[in-house]
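Practice record 12: protein with zinc ion.
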Amino acid sequence: MARPLTSPPLALREIIILPDKRLRLVSEPVKKITADIRKLVDDMFETMYDAPGIGLAAIQVGTPKRVVTMDLAKKEGEPKNPQVFINPEILWASAETATYEEGCLSIPEYYSDVERPAQVKVRYLDLEGTTREVDANGLLATCLQHEIDHINGVLFIDHISKLKRDRVIKKFSKAAKRTVE
Ligand code: K1U
Ligand code: ZN
C-alpha cells in the first residue's frame, strides 16, 4: 500500500513510573518495521526530548516492543544525534567495568552509581530494517545496557544494594498510593 504523503502529528506519550508492573515485562521483538513502529519511534523521540532524557525504551511508554531511542548529544545547542535501536542484543561485554551515576525516567529524581561492563558489542536493526553492529564504550555503552535492561524487564535499581532498592520501591509505592487515594 502507498505511504501517506503527510506524517501523522507527533504525540507525547505518558512515561510509566515505578511501581508500574509493566516495567517488569519482557518486550516482544519487532517482526516488521511498519508505519506503527515508525510512529512509535517518532513519539518516543518527542517524549524523550520533552522529559528530558538521553534514552527511552518503548516499554516506558507502555508498549512492550524491543525498541529503544537515544540521543547522547552533549550540550544544549549542539546538533541533535537521534539514534534508534530495534531488537538490540548484546553480543559481547568486556570483563573491565565502569561505574556511572544513572537515572531513569521511570524512577524520577533518583540517581545511583551502577557498575556495568565498560565496553559492549551490540547488534540491532535500524529503521530501514538493516542489521547493524556497534562497539560501544563510555556513556553509549552504559545507556545501551540500561535500555536493553528495560526491554528485558530489568531496572537500574536491580543493580544496587537490596537495602537501597527496597527504600526506593517503598517511596514510589507510597507516592502511587497517594495519587490513587
Ligand atoms: O531509560 C531511561 O530511563 C532514560 C535515562 C537513560 C540513562 C541515563 C543515565 C544513565 C543511563 C541511562 C535518562 O535519560 S535519565 C535523564 C538523564 O540522564 C539526563 C537528562 C537530561 C540531560 C542529561 C541527562
Ligand atoms: Zn530507565
